[in-house]
């Protein structure tokens, strides 16, 4: 059974590596967010640390893999809410993000020092509690808020996964990390690798689909000019609108006033027969 577990783990982090590569491709095309890449990368580090821990038996090796696992947990605790907040419509003030970063950095430094001083056991439960709180917060946010437009097509999958992730991840980490340190005879098992495989596979297919629908911006511009008689300046405004830029950002980038941006936007919507930037983006992409 151990070989099956290791095979699942190897497959999981191989799929995660491929998914990260695809996410980077999508990011360069403006189809993905950096928070998603960071979240996937943190999951990869976590599952790698769990895989390595099953190969080393010496006390020093166990301590090394334990600190690696703890640091990976901190990264997961940081990137999970960052990714969820980036994808959801919410009113959480920016101060909370700064607080999250501060707590994560403090824990990261504390864990590293504890490893050097050989007192790792004193901080491991703090890290696990921090991870549990951030994951719980993230999954509640998924269940209680609406998605932003760019992930609306996978809203149902997100909500199902939120429930599974909320229950499985904390229990798996407790079973595979805390209890092992307390000398209970528990294994990694199949559950956590399968969750990671499901997550990475879902993201992989989603990014593949988005890449297949992606067209260069020049094609959007030509279509606008040809079919809707959009001027050069209106084309520039339209491309920034579908990127999610605010009126102020468009104004600063094109060096025009905000009222001028609003005038161009109204003209674009009227020519294209749409009511908002979401409909405009859908029209251009299709």
Q: What are the segments in which pLDDT stays under 50 over at least 5 consecutive residues?
A: 179-188
Estimate the global geometry from the Cα principal axes.
elongated
Number of strands: 2
> What does the main sheet amount to?
2 strands, antiparallel
**N-to-C CA distance:** 48 Å
Percent of residues in helical segments? over 70%
Structural class, from helix and strand content?
A: mainly alpha
Strand order of the largest sheet: 1-2
Percent strand equals under 5%
Pfam families: GerE
Keywords: DNA-binding, Membrane, Transcription, Transcription regulation, Transmembrane, Transmembrane helix
GO molecular function, one term: DNA binding
Protein name: Response regulator transcription factor
Q: How does this structure look, described?
A:
This is Response regulator transcription factor. InterPro entries: Sig_transdc_resp-reg_C-effctor, Tscrpt_reg_LuxR_C, WH-like_DNA-bd_sf. The chain crosses the membrane at residues 6-25, 37-56, 68-86, 98-119, 125-142, 162-180. With 286 residues, the chain is an all-alpha fold. The protein has two domains: 2-213; 217-285, Arc Repressor Mutant, subunit A, CATH 1.10.10.10. The chain is 80% helix and 1% strand. The protein has helices at residues 2-28, 34-53, 59-87, 94-116, 121-144, 155-181, 191-213, 217-228, 232-242, 247-254, 258-272, 277-285, and strands spanning 88-89, 146-147. Helix 10 crosses helix 11. The longest helix is centred in the N-terminal third of the chain and has 29 residues, at 59-87. It starts with a helix and ends with a helix.
